[in-house]
Amino acid sequence: MNSDSYLKKSKTFLIIPIVYIVTIWLIYWIEINFNFNFNKLGVFPRTLNGFKGVFFTHFIHSNTNHLFNNSIPLFVLLSSLFYFYKDVAYKVLLFGGFFTGFITWVIARESYHIGASGIVYLLFSFVFFSGIIKKHYRLVALSLIIIFLYGSMIWYVLPIKKGMSWEGHLSGFLMGFILAIIFRKKGIVKQEHQFIETEFDTLFDKNGNFSPQELQDRIEEER
Question: What are phi and psi of 113, to 5 degrees?
Answer without folding.
Answer: -115, 120
